[in-house]
Amino acid sequence: MKKITIKEVAKEAGVSIGTVSRVFNDYPDISEETRKHVFEIANKVGYSPNLAARALSSKRLKTIALVFNDLVYQPKYTFPMSILNGVLDYAESQNLEFAFYAITTQKQKEKTYEQFCSERDVTGVIMQGLHQNDPYIEQLKTTRVPTVLIDMPVNDNQCVGSITTDNVTAAKDAVDVLIKGGYKNIDMMNGTYDATVSILRERGYKKALTDAGFEVNSSLIQYANYDEQIANLMAKQALQQNPTIDAFFCASDIMALGVLQALKDVGKKVPADVGVIGFDGLDLGAYVSPALSTVAQQPYEFGREAGRLIQELTDGPQPETTIERHVPYNLIRRETTR
Amino acid sequence: MKKITIKEVAKEAGVSIGTVSRVFNDYPDISEETRKHVFEIANKVGYSPNLAARALSSKRLKTIALVFNDLVYQPKYTFPMSILNGVLDYAESQNLEFAFYAITTQKQKEKTYEQFCSERDVTGVIMQGLHQNDPYIEQLKTTRVPTVLIDMPVNDNQCVGSITTDNVTAAKDAVDVLIKGGYKNIDMMNGTYDATVSILRERGYKKALTDAGFEVNSSLIQYANYDEQIANLMAKQALQQNPTIDAFFCASDIMALGVLQALKDVGKKVPADVGVIGFDGLDLGAYVSPALSTVAQQPYEFGREAGRLIQELTDGPQPETTIERHVPYNLIRRETTR
DNA sequence: GTGAAAGCGCTAACAG
DNA sequence: CTGTTAGCGCTTTCAC
């Protein structure tokens, strides 16, 4: 394909390239006449300013990037797609230049966060899927690149904000549902023990128990790595060691699915014998039977909020203090709880 | 953040920027000594070549783009994410520069396909979600930009290839399952009447019927726009008008879900009274009960194949003839068919 | 083997 | 209001 550059347009329109540039950048001091004429010609020859050139020569082209870390092929886990949709829609609504990138922990080791950003001229990034020990976590403490972390707390750097569900409260609410349902021996099927959300949800679980006057029994907490199969196995094992367990609070819906299957496998009735509540609000949960009770997060809103925040961070003044925003969650009571 | 440019590295290393550039571009005529030295310095100061500048000055930086058209927020529909994963993994494995973009039919009207591509310096694009009447469809007939279409036939332009499931055969296979199950009055819940895949799947449906010696009755075909709710309504209506219907072939799993619900609503037993088979192979189908029989496409493989093909198209010689590749599908018999 | 210099397409002073 | 020109950061001849 033949590239149409600003020169072609300038020549064709009989003006200088400077003028064409001004027209395309909405400079005020251009006669209405030439503006129109230039646009006409540009349209005729099919001209579109090259973004790379623009980024190079201008200091004011802003592009915000959404970056997913360690995105693995897991179709059931629809969170990333929802987040993507959210920031996409927001970027679109604000006419922001948007870019998407996928990285891995490995890549983080090969290139620093600042390098990654300067390489691609991003002015702000929305980051999802970072792990506790990723190299970028450390670098994020001192970076000057406006960043918003999704589902991960920030390290008091004013440049970086965060968007999360209030995991502690949400988890407590979920466990409260179980408690109010009359379940007495509530197990927690947690994810990875060192993930922030796991820690927070576990805190909520314990708080609910304590507040209700129950004992917290650490043998009633398993870590199934957010994996359906492992959760299935661990649930069976827990049930065997602790036959009095009559409810499971799962740190993710995917694990809840595994637990539900385990219950089916060992012949327990849900929600009569044992109650189950998940976390996330995947659509999947509404289709299984019995339908899964859960605390639904709003990943699409995460995306929108993240977009809003990154825009504030890149355009507005430096905030006085680190910004952490919660997006609301919904307790959904379906058929796995009484 | 302070940008580290090639200049810094050159100065620090005591060589010219040309040399640094050569080192980073693996030119052979560089002494091993300076090569090492330059890399060392670059590493020390945290230098990473700027991609925009690179794209501008070099004619050989290739970046392939995955573009989704009219991506709407539909978490149940996990196809796009799977495709994304597939091309991401392929691009990663081949070290291809990758970019993702979302467009809309509206945007297609504002900017031509060539403009879109030259604006962002893409050398090849993988396109998903195009509709029959989108402006780009017409422009794709004559474009010189290597393109691969997912789930859409090509218009004999050697620059553009396509990756699809063999929809006709797959649909026929699905209907054959129904026929072999002894169902006699098979309804087809199709999507939009003018989408290519709809047309193809309908063709397969008719072929299966004809081959089996059945009549094709067009009043037994509905168009539910690939929507769960609409499918639900239409199924009920079809059943009312045609009480002898004893099976539904659905052009998508999402619609099959709606049909299943409709059957539940009117008290029909599945698969005893009526059989249902879907199309797509969403994970969701495995969790509903009765579990949905379906023909599973492999969207992740679509992504990988598309990556492979776009690479051939951009690197290899122009193919003699338009390339259309099928990726295999799997007939999954679960509980909604006998 | 390596430096110097001419662009790549565009923006942003600086004149006029 | 508009033309001219100096870069932006990098690649790529062309010399030496």
From TrEMBL, chains A, B:
Keywords: DNA-binding, Transcription, Transcription regulation
InterPro entries: HTH_LacI (IPR000843), LacI/GalR-like_sensor (IPR046335), Lambda_DNA-bd_dom_sf (IPR010982), Peripla_BP_I (IPR028082)
UniProt cross-references to Pfam families, sorted A to Z: LacI (PF00356), Peripla_BP_3 (PF13377)
Domain HTH lacI-type per the UniProt entry, residue ranges: 4-58
A GO term for molecular function: DNA binding
PANTHER family: HTH-TYPE TRANSCRIPTIONAL REGULATOR GALS (PTHR30146:SF109), LACI-RELATED TRANSCRIPTIONAL REPRESSOR (PTHR30146)
Name of the protein described by the UniProt record: LacI family DNA-binding transcriptional regulator
Species for this entry: Lactiplantibacillus plajomi
Lineage, highest ranks first: Bacteria, Bacillati, Bacillota, Bacilli, Lactobacillales
